[in-house]
Design goal:
Length: about 190
């Protein structure tokens, strides 16, 4: 069985404090135990909070900056992360990705606020899908990633989704550094 608490390296007291903060509980006695899906959602929420903090540090004048000709622009990277939730939701619900088309196709880049507002319902749908998985489903459901055919159990696949966004947050930090723009403090 996949023990998410151990994989994330969280002891019970840290996990309980995170639950208290996330769910607005008054004490650890308000909640006996977080489910794996709740802990995964907590992780997704914290990653996204930090991503948005970074993205808000990008001046509109630098939306189309990129480090080289083969890289994504800053705004393309933001969109890539946001629109991924739509695809992840199809994958974790074992939908057909054969003729995948994103709702962002041919949509102009306007602003970060516009991107976040457009993405919100897709994010909420994705998080609700994660919320409905039982611990057993998370540990026993096999997901095959359509891009490379890799097989993982659902819990591990969901952790990889969080890692994907975290990697792009690191890339975005390096973009801001290369642009000589003050980088928002994400560790608070």
């Amino acid at each position: 069985m996949f023990n998410l608490t151990i994989k994330l390296g969280l002891c019970n007291s840290i996990r309980n404090r995170m639950a208290i903060a996330y769910f607005g509980l008054n004490s650890i006695h308000d909640r006996k135990k977080m489910t794996q899906s709740e802990l995964i959602i907590l992780n997704f929420t914290e990653i996204r909070r930090k991503s948005i903090k970074l993205w808000k540090g990008l001046p509109k004048s630098h939306y189309n900056w990129k480090p080289d000709d083969k890289a994504m622009t800053a705004i393309e990277m933001i969109r890539h992360v946001l629109e991924a939730d739509y695809g992840w939701n199809i994958i974790i619900n074992k939908g057909d990705m054969t003729n995948y088309s994103t709702p962002w196709k041919n949509r102009p880049f306007i602003s970060l606020t516009d991107e976040l507002e457009f993405a919100e319902p897709y994010r909420n749908t994705f998080l609700e899908s994660v919320r409905q998985f039982s611990d057993r489903e998370l540990n026993e459901t096999e997901i095959i990633h359509p891009g490379n055919g890799d097989k993982k159990n659902l819990a591990k696949y969901l952790l990889r989704i969080g890692y994907h966004e975290s990697v792009h947050a690191g890339q975005f930090l390096s973009y801001l550094r290369a642009m000589k723009i003050n980088r928002p403090e994400i560790w608070v």
